[in-house]
Amino acid sequence: MRLLLIRHGQTPANVLGALDTRHPGPGLTELGHRQAAAIPGALRDERIDGIVVSTLLRTQLTAAPLSADLGLERQVIDGIHEIEASDLEGLSSHAAAMQYMETVFSWASGDLDRPMPGGPNGHDFFGRFDAAISSIASGHDGTVAVVSHGAAIRTWAAARAGNVDVDYAAEHALSNTGVVIVSGTVLGGWTVEEWDGEPIGGSTLRDPSADDPTGDTLG
Asked: Which residue, 22, 61, 114, 203, has fewest beta-carbon neighbours within 10 Å?
C-alpha cells in the first residue's frame, strides 16, 4: 500500500515558532486554509482510497477540502497526533525547539529510552504511531492520505523507512502540507518514494518568515 503522509496546514503556533501539541490544538491561519484548499488539485492524479486524520483539529481542517472533493469521510484515528512537548509546551525559544527535535530524532536513531522532558519516550511514540499505521493498513489496500504532524512524520519515516535515516530527516524540512510518500507493508517494511518538503500546492504557499521548529531542518 501507499501512504501519503501530509503535514497539516499552517497554524498560529507555526508562525510564532511555539511548541503547541496539546489537544485539541489550534485551527489554521488564512494561509493554512489556502494550503488545505490546494491539496485536492495537487492530488488529482492519485487514486485515494481513504483519508485519515489525527485527533488534533488542525489535521481535520486540513483534510476537509480533500474530503469534500473526493466524497470520502475523514477517519479520525488515535496515535498519529503530534509528539507531546510536555515540559517544553508553549515555549518558542531556539533552545526549546532544539531540545524537542534532538529528542525525537534520537528516538529515530534508536535511543528509545530517552524521554521528552516531563513526557513520553521513544517506546511510547513508536508504540502508538506503529499501532495506528497497522490499523490503517488493515483497513486499506491502496493509497491512503494520512494528515499528521511534522515531527511525528519525520521521526516515524526516519526510523521505519529502509531507504532514509535520521540524518536525512533532520536535514530535510517538511513545511506545512509538505508530503512524505511511503509504500510497503507493516510486515515487509516501508520505502520512501518521495519526500517533498514544500507545500503540496507549490512553493508559493510556503511562509519563509514563519519560525516553524517542527518543520525546519535541524541545524
From this structure: 203
Parallel/antiparallel/unpaired status of strands 179-185 and 2-7: antiparallel
Gap between the Cα atoms of 163 and 172, Å rounded: 14
Q: Which helix (H) or strand (E) holds 130?
A: helix 122-139
What distance separates the 2 farthest-apart alpha carbons in the chain? Answer: 44
* CATH 3.40.50.300, domain 8-143+199-205, yes or no: no
- Name the percent of the chain in helix, strand, coil, to the closest 5: 40, 20, 40
pTM of the model: 0.97
Question: Which of 68, 62, 67 minimizes the C-alpha distance to 82?
Answer: 62
Please state the φ and ψ torsions of residue 76, each to the nearest 5 degrees: -85, 125
Query: Quick one: 29 exposed, middle or buried, by C-beta within 10 A (0-12, 13-18, 19+)?
Result: buried
132 φ/ψ angles, rounded to the nearest 5 degrees: -65, -45
| Per-residue cell: 34 | 489556502
- Whether residue 60 contacts residue 73, with contact meaning beta carbons closer than 8 Å, is answered with no
pLDDT tens readout for residues 84-115: 999 999 999 999 999 999 999 999 999 999 99
The one-letter amino acid code at 213 reads P
DSSP 105: H
**Residue 216 pLDDT class (50, 70, 90 cuts):** confident
pLDDT digits (tens, 9 = 90+) for 21-33: 999 999 999 999 9
